User: Fold ABC transporter substrate-binding protein from Jejubacter calystegiae.
Amino acid sequence: MPKNSFTLSRRRLIQTGAALGGSLLLPGLMNAAWAAGSDKPEQTTIRVGFIPLTDCAPVVMAALKGFDKKYGIRIEPVKEASWASVRDKLVSGELDAAHVLYGLIYGLELGIAGKPQRMANLMTLNNNGQAISLSADLREKGIVDGAGLKKRVAGSAPGTYTFAHTFPTGTHAMWLYYWLAANDIHPFNDVRTVVVPPPQMVMNMMIGNMVGFCVGEPWNARAINDRIGYTATTSQQIWPDHPEKILGTRRDWVEQNPNSARALTAAVLDAARWLDASPENRRETAKVLARRAWLNTKEQYLAPRMLGDYEDGLGNRWQDRHGMRYFGDGEVSWPWHSDGIWFLTQFRRWGLLKHEPDYQALAARINRNDVWREAASAVGGITPPGETLRTSRLMDGTLWDGRDPARYAASFAIKR
Assistant:
């Protein structure tokens, strides 16, 4: 076959397939079309940073299971030690993209998480799957929930108790602040908060540097297994099916490499669908992620919560209806504008933003639904949601639908 014999554009392939009753629109052929000719990825090796957390699974498995090769690229996962490191390497160009905190990307765009940068969210990597852990010392004092913690904090000098999250504008900071405030504890006036990288949470709690932390798995399960803490609440109890990590990058990288951005999103989206396809795929992933190259932990810390099997370290066990989800028929990974806007409302609530932002314009600029649609088309069998706003009810009964963010941000009794 001549070298250039398969250089039909995507448009010509679709037109030809339609003329023949769709007989050309086979998954393998469609993927080949997206990786050839005018649609060929500009950059074929893509460095994608990740932090050792269970929700890096779509990026890691896209590389290890060969989903990347289907779209003409090679994903090179790069292990990082902290979210600050991910931020710095994304900005410098050492990383092309990353498994990254939703709020970190929005914070960079706004210049409150570092020097202002033009950022892009290609897709959401997961819903749910984080938690707030409290120390065994608090449990021994009879504190087993937020109400008990409130009484303890109220009887102490401000700042006596220290809590950790993972990044100032990150998701874990927002879950921690929201949960504390919902229990009538002001996260800035009543307690002290510090930043600790995820893999260092358990050790820091063990040596007494804090009495609580909010982080992703497997570090909450590890705290229980090591008997140094217990799960006070899961993040899905704060907001069922909340957005968590995203596939983030710089907007200029997308503009310079539109085909590579599409191919990367397609590969990770394909891997996310595989992850949600069966419990066996989750178990296989847990075995892989436990290895030294990835999370460097025990499979027993990973698999149960990946499968929705929870225990809290207080004797309670349950099968979580809102366990970690990676795909959910595409609804998980769709870059919902209302998800990004929610983080903006919390930045405003806690004084990280001094002035009201243009909520809708920011979300529309950062969340690349156009790239997601092209990637979904390349993967095949995925129907994009018809809207960019969704409705959610959080733990305190507040309804979030993204339609009046300024009013929502101002509505909280506890704020800064």
The CA atoms of residues 121 and 162 lie 32 Å apart. The domain at 130-238 is CATH 3.40.190.10 (D-Maltodextrin-Binding Protein; domain 2). Confidence is low (pLDDT under 50) at residues 1-30. The first helix runs from residue 10 to 19.
